[in-house]
Amino acid sequence: MEIVILFVGFSIGLVLLVKGADEMVSSAVQIALKFKIPSSIIGATFIGFGTSAPELFASTGAALNGDLDLGIGNIVGSNIANSLLVVAVLYLAIPKDFDKKIKLNQLSPVWMAILTTVFVSTYVLFSSFPLYLGIVLLVLTIYVVYKMVSADSVEEEDFKPEEKNYVWLRGLLSLAATLYGSQLVVDNAVKLAETFGVSSLVIGSTIIAIGTSLPEVAGTIAAARMRKPDIVFGNIFGSNLFNIGLVGGVAISISPGSILSRIDYQLFMMYFVSFLVIFLSRNVIKRNIVVGYSFIAFYLLFIISLF
């Protein structure tokens, strides 16, 4: 019975976390527009942040509890899920007659590669996540956002949400829901890990990572049907970049040091699939069930290997 209660608490927390973060970002964009904040800044910050908001709150909550394993597991697992599951859905859902190369702003994939390299190489060299790594990641993220604002302006119509009433109240309530949901997720995830005798890293890399990546999967289906694979790849690169730079930077700055589990294999997997997605984005995009189902199988093998 206790396990059922833990799963229910975890599920409720995950719904509050994901839905609350989505509403929070939507409200933040409307508030920013009311204050005449330039569209390029909103596009580069709020939208980029929105893809990583669930991971940020979950990993920050874990770090505040002194559980860096859970926070790092969430980051690594989310990036792998983004790179494998989301891409798999794209190749399976894209219309059969779509067959062309896409144009992408190369800023986000290049910086995703740089931040991923810094993150992985630091752990490989020192077997820990030192405080200076967290600071470096946050500084680089601020610089990347600045470069995005300077290089790429976004039309307001591209991201302006449907006009809503009581936007300030919605923003505050969604923030409260997100904070409470993240705490529920972390608390119940830790108890589930203890109950099943698995590490926080595994819980973070699997059920939390999959849960926080579900919005990207749902968005990919919609974008594929609209024949917009560029949105999918842009979302993957932006989400992975912010996961490592912002989420990783905050979590490591709060609770720097070593983690209980070795994650060389998981980091290698994240590094490999991140560059694989960059390669795919520069080639012709068309429906390919072999790639789609291969990526799903690849992801399932990764999950099984963790246990």
Explain what the structure shows:
- This protein is mostly helical.
- The chain is 80% helix and 1% strand.
- The protein has helices at residues 2-34, 39-64, 68-93, 107-126, 131-151, 156-159, 167-196, 200-225, 229-254, 264-281, 289-305, and strands at 99-100, 285-286.
- Helix 1 runs antiparallel to helix 2.
- The relative contact order is 0.24.
CATH level-two architecture: Up-down Bundle
Shape: globular
Order of helices and strands: HHHEHHHHHHHEH
Q: Tell me the helix content.
A: over 70%
The CATH class assignment is: Mainly Alpha
The amount of beta strand, in percent, is: under 5%
Mean pLDDT comes to 82
Could you state the CATH homologous superfamily?
Answer: NCX, central ion-binding region
CATH topology: A middle domain of Talin 1
Rg on CA atoms, Å:
19 Å
Instruction: Give, in spatial order, the strands making up the sheet with the most strands.
Output: 1-2
Number of helices: 11
N- to C-terminal distance = 24 Å
Structural class: mainly alpha
Describe the sheet with the most strands.
2 strands, antiparallel
Number of strands: 2
Number of domains: 1
Low-confidence stretches: none
List keywords for this structure.
80% helix; 11 helices; 307 residues; mainly alpha; two-stranded antiparallel ribbon
